Amino acid sequence: MKRYIIGLFIIAILITGCSPSGNNSNSLNGDDKYRVVTTTTMIADLAKVIGGEYVEVQGLMGPGIDPHLYKASAGDVSLMQKSDMILYNGLHLEGKMGDVLEKLNDSGKLVVALSDGIHEEKLLTFEEGSNIYDPHIWFDIALWKQAAVHVTEGFKTLDEKHSDQYDANLKFYLDELDKLHEYINQRAAELPKEKRVLITAHDAFNYFGKAYGFEVKGLQGISTDSEAGTSDLRELANYIVDHKIKAIFIETSVPHKNIEALQEAVRAKGFEVKIGGELYSDSTGNPGTEAETYIGTLKGNIDTIVNALK
Ligand SMILES: [Zn+2]
User: Fold this and answer.
1) Secondary structure element (H or E) that encloses residue 76, with its range
2) Are residues 93 and 122 in the same domain?
3) How far is the CA of 113 from the centre of ligand 1 (A)?
4) Same domain, 67 and 156
5) What's the domain range around 231?
6) How many domains does the structure of the chain reveal?
7) How far is Cα 168 from Cα 50, in angstroms, rounded to an integer?
8) In three state form, how does the secondary structure of 118-133 look?
9) What's the 222 CA to ligand 1 centre distance in angstroms?
10) Are residues 139 and 215 both part of a single domain?
11) How close is the Cα of 134 to the center of ligand 1, in Å?
12) Which member of 97, 155, 181, 283 lies 3.0 to 4.6 Å from 166 by CB, making a disulfide possible if both were Cys?
């Protein structure tokens, strides 16, 4: 009898010890999935793909939200505290969340920066000789593949038992990303070199430009947390007139007024540049649209760009 009770006790410990949330039993949904909190929508999408059936992903930032300016609410902090893992971009993309993420990391929480999985020599700096890295790593698919590998390592640390499944999900997804890369290359090839000039609201597309042969100019810098100066505007307007650029682009996560002001400044010089459409820069599209996923977002962008500049 005594042995039987001890046996039951051990089984109880094993069951509790195996529960994904460990000691933290205040599960959100009452099931046994790992709770993963992500910052941007691109990362939420990646976490869902790699985590698959074992994971409940909670994205803090919705579509159209600007991560440079996003501040974590009390509710966000509570979600992160209760989570099993936090995934974020890093390189100061989440410029206002640095302290919160650091504190959670210090408290022993599994906090993973996707940018830590990317070889440093592949990162672009803000300007020559600067040590401020451009955080918009998702726009070079080769880099996003490295980020996917790093996220997979995170899942395997969290849940070693299902490592094979996470590896299988990764393998499938890397193939999908290769196909996406091919699609973007094909579409970009429809534009002659001199037409591959991408002018947008802020400098989110430098990785994209480097990977797919576009010259990229943003009205604001690599963070939206800065003002576009009138000299920037004048310079860019002159450039558009001189090079007879057909279209410039607004972004879903940045107010449209700066690009509209640029269009106006070009018009004042007697040249007409159209607004070529809306690009997804720092977030994916709305749920229920094709751009809901990372892959859909990048496809949508290249289609908008090529169709407008052709
Ligand atoms: Zn940005």
Assistant:
1) helix 74-82
2) yes
3) 16
4) yes
5) 186-309
6) 2
7) 9
8) CCHHHCCECCCCCCCE
9) 6
10) no
11) 9
12) 155
